């Protein structure tokens, strides 16, 4: 199936894994695919998303914001002992390089090699639905547009809820369908 992905769609899959890794997530979810699609979309899809106020910076910020800092509870527990976890983090990052503290605590962290992060069931379903969208449009390739339609068709995920804050999903679907029809 991957051989039918456009260059941008292939980049989106790679970027989804990178996004999940950067956020410290165990699986690639639909929200990571959304960030990656926004980041690697072609000119027309990017313009369509921008018309609705969907930008890479905004989507990344909103997804990262929803996760909070995983060390808040640890910081609260260490504070009565006189340990300032923020200061410890700053010192580790200063002495060992930016992100060293977080890297050491990631699953499989401590080294420079990233392990492969698997796709969640929901993101696999999104890619399956993207393939169905390509078939529906009678296209023998799969692009970021199809992945976005797969996200919209998938329904109840963090990614679709986030998109719905910016745009009516039915309207976005109509606009993306029109882009794909024009490309045919």
Q: What does this protein structure show overall?
A:
By secondary structure, the chain is an all-alpha fold. It has a single domain, classed as Double Clp-N motif (Orthogonal Bundle), CATH 1.10.1780.
What is the name of the CATH superfamily?
Clp, N-terminal domain
Total number of helices:
11
What best-fitting shape do the alpha-carbon axes yield? elongated
Helix-strand sequence:
HHHHHHHHHHH
- Write down the Rg: 19 Å
- The whole-number mean of residue pLDDT values reads 86
| N-end to C-end Cα span | 20 Å
Number of structurally distinct domains: 1
Structural class assignment: mainly alpha
Q: Which fold name is given in CATH as the topology?
A: Double Clp-N motif
The percentage helix is 55-70%
CATH architecture type: Orthogonal Bundle
Classified by CATH, the class is: Mainly Alpha
Strand content: under 5%
pLDDT below 50 for ≥5 consecutive residues: which ranges?
none
Largest sheet: none
Protein name: Clp protease
Keywords: ATP-binding, Hydrolase, Nucleotide-binding, Protease, Repeat
Organism: Mycolicibacterium parafortuitum (Mycobacterium parafortuitum)
Pfam family, one: Clp_N
């Amino acid at each position: 199936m991957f051989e039918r992905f456009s260059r941008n769609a292939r980049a989106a899959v790679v970027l989804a894994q990178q996004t999940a890794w950067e956020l410290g997530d165990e699986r690639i979810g639909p929200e990571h695919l959304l960030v990656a699609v926004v980041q690697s979309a072609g000119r027309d899809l990017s313009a369509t998303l921008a018309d609705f106020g969907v930008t890479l910076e905004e989507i990344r910020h909103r997804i990262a914001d929803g996760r909070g800092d995983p060390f808040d509870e640890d910081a609260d527990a260490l504070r009565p002992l006189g340990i300032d976890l923020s200061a410890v983090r700053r010192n580790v990052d200063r002495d060992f390089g930016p992100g060293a503290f977080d890297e050491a605590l990631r699953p499989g962290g401590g080294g420079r090699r990233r392990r492969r992060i698997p796709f969640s069931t929901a993101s696999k379903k999104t890619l399956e639905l993207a393939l169905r969208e390509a078939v529906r449009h009678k296209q023998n390739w799969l692009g970021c547009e199809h992945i976005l339609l797969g996200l919209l068709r998938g329904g109840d995920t963090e990614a679709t809820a986030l998109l719905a804050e910016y745009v009516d999903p039915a309207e976005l679907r109509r606009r993306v369908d029109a882009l794909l029809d024009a490309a045919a």
